[in-house]
Description:
This protein is of the alpha+beta class. Helix content is about 35%, strand content about 10%. Strands 12-13-14-11-5-15 form a six-stranded mixed β-sheet. Strands 18, 19, 20, 21, 22 and 23 form a six-stranded mixed β-sheet that branches. A five-stranded antiparallel β-sheet has the order 7-8-9-6-10. Helix 24 crosses helix 25 (about 735-745). Pfam families: POP1_C, POP1_N, POPLD, Sgf11.
Amino acid sequence: MADNPKKRKEGAEGAxxxxxxxxxxxxxxxxxAAMSTAYPSGEIDTKKFMRAHENEIKSMExxxxxxxKGLARRAFQEVPRDMRRRTASHNPQRVPKRIKRxxxxxxxxxxxxxxxxKSGSGIGKGKTQWLRREGIEKSKRAKEKRGQKRTTKDDNAxxxxxxxxxxxxxxxxxxxxxxKPKSKRLVALAxxxxxxxxxxxxxxxxxxxxxxxxxxxRARMTLPKEPLWRFAIPLAPVAKAYRHxxxxxxxxxxxxxxxxxxxxxxxxxxxxSILGLLKGLHFAAExxxxxxQARGRGKKWVDGMRAWDGWIxxxxxxxxxxxxxxxxxxxxxxxxxxxxxxxxxxxxxxxxLQLWNEVIRIxxxxxxxxxxxxxxxxxxxxxxxxxxxxxxxxxxLHPSPPxxxxxxxxxxxxxxLATVTNPGVxxxxxxxxxxxxxxxxxxxxxxxxxxxxxxxxxxxIEILADWPVDRTQTAPAIFxxxxxxxxxxxxxxxxxxxxxxxxxxxxxxxxxxxxxxxIPILTYVSRKHRSWTVILPWKCVMPVWRGIxxxxxxxxxxxxxxxxxxxxxxxxxxxxxCFPFDFPGTDAGWGWELQMRxxxxxxWTKRPKGKRVEWATIDLGGGRKGEIGDPWAxxxxxxxxxxxxxxxxxxxxxxxxxxPFRQLxxxxxxxxxAGRAAFKDHLALPHLFTVKITMIGRGTPATCARIxxxxxxxxxxxxxWMSLLSSLASTHGRPSxxxxxxxxxxxxxxxxxxxxxxxxxxPTDLAxxxxxxxxxxxxxxxxxxxxxxxxxxxxxxxxxxxxxxxANVALxxxxxxxxxxxxxxxxxxxxxxxxxxxxxxxxRAADDPDEGVESAVMLSPDALADLTQxxxxxxxxxxxxxxxLSCHRAEKLLRMQSAATRAESLxxxxxxxxxxxxxxxxxxxIPTADTGAAKYENGRVFLRGNPLKTTPEIxxxxxxLPRLMHPIMGKGMQNPDLxxxxxxxYPWVQRSGHDVYGNPFPTDMAKSKKERELIKQQQKNAEKExxxxxxxxxxxxxxxxxxxxxxxxxxxxxxxxSYIPWHTCPSCKRSLLITRFAQHLEKCLGISGRQSSxxxxxxxxxxxxxxxxxxxxxxxxxxxxxxxxxxxxDNVSLPKSKAKGISPIKRTADEDDEGDNDTPERKxxxxxxxxxxxxxxxxxxxxxxxxxxxxxxxxxxDVDRKARDGSEKPDGKRGxxxxxxPDGAPRPKKLKLSMNKVxxxxxxxxxxxxxxxxxx
Length: 1256
């Protein structure tokens, strides 16, 4: 049994009670060693000493760091900002475990009261603990009652059991069993797997998403007893995320959603039967492309290479109503001869039950039959939006190694799509199906290196253009139930994953094993939503989700997670209506509206009276008070058409979950407003269609905002709204600004600059000019008879930088006051014109082409060809007209300016100085001049006639010289008048191999001096040989050879192709080629070369010298060998030798003092003292006198100045320029002697002091 340090040990009998040891823990015991052991030889081993105290030093540094950090920040400040809570600063229980103890200590030191939690499960928590105790007791009593009933039932069954079979048969004959009613065989809906026991009671009436626990810590979820579409769905993040989501979805990063609540319906059967089922549900009936055609995208869709997004309708009905917008994905044919196909239909959960019933009903009439399967809890999905979505997916989803490697397989191509930032560059709705390995084996994920070189970009372009996946795509394993279940059941536990990661090499991922599961996935892109969607098994969503959210994006940060609110925000910023929120004409959208009415009213009721809007007292003007209809709802019931009895029709339908409206596409609706009937009986049922609203005045539209048309029964009020609209459009409205910018594009440049200057100098003030709602002069709101729709989504659009809204408008209200017939083209309502512009907003279809959604009018081929031809002709004519007009106007302006310049020059030149003028007076003379094109008078110029006719040439306004009208070489050249002087601004030259200034392009590298001289000599020889022959003419040069030479004087270019400019060195004033200038500058300034390395070595050795005089510490700059010690040159001669380390041309310190200027100067070449070998031999043979050549060294510095400088140096140090003795006398100099070779050998040279030589 381990000793308990907190328990005191019992002392001996009769002994006093022993105290508890103060340092009882082993880590507090201080170990010591004997002196002889620590210092065996009386010396300290530095290496062992540092190693022994290494941990102590580290502990001390950590303690100092922790103390400094602890004084600066408190415990709750260590929590990341996105994980902080409002009450975490005074509750240590609400911080992470790693700093919980520190928070408690700080609370005790500050005397902060620690509040106990009042929430949680169990008895004894909160003020309502008696309710929990009562509920537990009630459940126990109910359990006991059920047990008693079970025991009594078993006892009765035992007592009433017949003894024999005959008695049992008699009993059955007396009481025959009632016939069982025939039950219809229905396809059973899927049920989720049984959750763990600790979470089972929380999922009785709802289902958790695979990432539910991850989201509960970071987002606001639906209420436990109020699930949404029978799922616990995250509604919005806890932290603010509106702007962050916009940036991540559009600028940098990515946003991910767990879309596993999307329902999936599986179909399996003959291809013809499945096609018949889809056609019976009118799938993609309003799409521009025909999905049933046997070519193009339709054929690829049926072959399983593309996905298709479209609306699906109810089967029956003259005007079938829309159910939902679905995505249909075919499985690739497993064999060409096989006729059995599989298909997925992905639909929003709000419309799942309605679509399920329709699919079951129509599948039974197909021959052969189609098998329908509910795959809601077998298949999950993750959706990503943003520029880094492809990078994140390609980094986290690693394809498993295939058995047969192919460079064109989907798994091989998948990694090359990481640099794609816009999914629109991929083929529309393209599919990629393959298997991946467990992402947890590569956790944490590492950021990949994105290759942006030309080779990788060209490879990506080739892949996108060819898209080899269409040839290599096989049947995805996600369509097979066995593969889906095997992937979910074979996933390793997190504990085993951690074991494999810890056993791997540090910094490396664990190696793959043959037993690792393969997760089947199917990825497709959507151009409409600009998103990537990954379909995978339900149980494999969480591993992939963690990898995606932990990936470090190359642009910085991690991908953000989104909730239901962010999904609507992204669609709103893309100006696309979101299902089912913006489609009240469907049953799913109608149900959402009914649910939101209750929530809005409940939220309004919870607010205090001082902080909520009293809708009942709002003054609408004209004696009207209160909002029209239900203020917390889009009151669509008020837009229903009036029946013949004067009552609202279909009152029973409005109270049920079925919508009384039909959802109409915006394309058909605007066709009706333009006078084209899209279908018959369009007013038999009320229809709604979506529009986009852009505010041209102040204010931000909100949900449930009312939309009115211009008053139809009050002409005076209609006129006020029209005047307000015209004033807004002319001064402040955004559409008018766009229109003004469009009109200014065709205006001349000086007009555009004038408008720009006016806008900058005179900014308009909306607060002073525009009327505000609530002013006395502001028009009143129209009546209920002019109400045409409601805004379903409204807010400030960050993508467009202005408030926008998505709304629905009633068709019969838009077409007429009574909803009777189409409006004629000449009498449409001014508020709802053909482009949908209202009085205070810009309304257009939400799927307008300007907003990025394809929309067009169906035309016949002949009409389309005529329209295209007219558009092209008009476009070409406009381009030609604009070009010709701009050229004409520019030329005319130049001629006008030239005429004014000539007149001004003539007037100023004719004015004489006042002192020289005859009849000098105090009044200054007024300069005047009159030419045929202009008249100059007192600083003002008056033009005469058309300057294009009166001014033949252009004069430069700066230099007052005429300009050349045509180039002197190349295309369009003409011979200029060489007797005139022209402006240096020449026309541009168009000549092959030359730039616009006439200079030829470089064709080869710089030639050496010999090559240039050789070329010049060849040219001179050619000129001598061609004497007497006619000069050759350059076809690109105006005139002949003589004329060309004169013209070359005007040309700014004219340099040969091999010409290389020169540059002057700022230090030595030498002119060098620019190709050699950098190398010269380094040597001239001492940046590189031998001298720079010597200076650096001298500095280093000067710092590290030993001070003995034998090293390099006293070496002067410029020396190549060590300086001798002081006094070593007095009586000792140094032989001149070529041994290693001794320079044969060693210079003394005095030679370095000859000049103070840093500018290098050329020194005269001194006569060498070397004696030729022949002369030495000759002298040796003849026995003549020995010749001695003396090389004297001249003193270069003043002795007084050196003495003065030497006195300032510190003692004990020898100066570099010190050449004097302490008494002021010059220091003796060395002499270099060279002697002839004697008979028996060569005598070594000797060096003696100067005084000794003079004595001799």
